[in-house]
Amino acid sequence: MAYKVDHEYNYLFKIVLIGDSGVGKSNILSRFTRNEFFLESKSTIGVEFATRTLQVEGKTIKAQIWDTAGQERYRAITSAYYRGAAGALLVYDVTKRQTFDNVLRWLRELRDHADSNIVIMMAGNKSDLNHLRAVSMEDAEGLAEKEGLSFLETSALEAFNVEKAFQTILLDIYQIVRKKALAAQEAGSSTGVPHGTTIKVSNLQDNGTKNACCST
Ligand SMILES: Nc1nc2c(ncn2[C@@H]2O[C@H](COP(=O)(O)OP(=O)(O)OP(=O)(O)O)[C@@H](O)[C@H]2O)c(=O)[nH]1
Ligand SMILES: [Mg+2]
């Protein structure tokens, strides 16, 4: 049987796009992966994803970015959507206050469904519409600091900071992965033996089966 092994990247990281409907998630994705923008795009139905491979600190990283509908009625797939995600781009629209107020709701959803170590970047999209601004930089920076998120304003239309947003998320993820790998290496080399789970086999039971109990 013929099959192809893909050796073209060092790491594959999944990133999810979240935020209210209409904030520009799908256009951020198309700008980043295909350098395209659509003035009149339809609301996403179901889940789509696209990939782009890029260099981070000399490593080739394939970013697999998932996009779904911000609209509540399409969102019955949450746990599958968040499974395995190493990063999240949480988008609001700088011209719509409600989408910023809902950031806390999205953070709660991440806390409920995603890995606790997930890297989160908040993006205030549509920065090109400055004359219609309803969320100040100060408010957004305040929230980002309080919640421990990175933050950028972006414009999918003008291709402003879209690249930087993903680069920042990927770099943060890469550094976490590297730190973990180094820690594991050090733990292994300090004893000279590989680390594993210790299995303590206790008394033989009456029926002759062994009762194994584990400690780490
Ligand atoms: N001016 C401006 N408009 C934008 C920008 N990004 C997206 N839009 C417009 O905003 C509208 C909604 O964009 P989408 O990308 O479809 O939004 P979405 O978040 O994917 O929406 P759902 O799929 O419903 O969750 C479209 O008309 C886009 O053209 C931006 O940076 N600036
Ligand atoms: Mg969409």
UniProtKB/TrEMBL annotation:
<keyword id="KW-0636">Prenylation</keyword>
<dbReference type="InterPro" id="IPR005225">
    <property type="entry name" value="Small_GTP-bd"/>
</dbReference>
<dbReference type="Pfam" id="PF00071">
    <property type="entry name" value="Ras"/>
</dbReference>
<dbReference type="GO" id="GO:0005525">
    <property type="term" value="F:GTP binding"/>
</dbReference>
<keyword id="KW-0449">Lipoprotein</keyword>
<keyword id="KW-0547">Nucleotide-binding</keyword>
<keyword id="KW-0813">Transport</keyword>
<dbReference type="InterPro" id="IPR027417">
    <property type="entry name" value="P-loop_NTPase"/>
</dbReference>
<dbReference type="GO" id="GO:0003924">
    <property type="term" value="F:GTPase activity"/>
</dbReference>
<dbReference type="InterPro" id="IPR001806">
    <property type="entry name" value="Small_GTPase"/>
</dbReference>
<dbReference type="GO" id="GO:0012505">
    <property type="term" value="C:endomembrane system"/>
</dbReference>
<dbReference type="InterPro" id="IPR050209">
    <property type="entry name" value="Rab_GTPases_membrane_traffic"/>
</dbReference>
<keyword id="KW-0472">Membrane</keyword>
<protein>
    <recommendedName>
        <fullName>Ras-related protein Rab11C</fullName>
    </recommendedName>
</protein>
<dbReference type="GO" id="GO:0015031">
    <property type="term" value="P:protein transport"/>
</dbReference>
<keyword id="KW-0342">GTP-binding</keyword>
<comment type="similarity">
    <text>Belongs to the small GTPase superfamily. Rab family.</text>
</comment>
<keyword id="KW-0653">Protein transport</keyword>
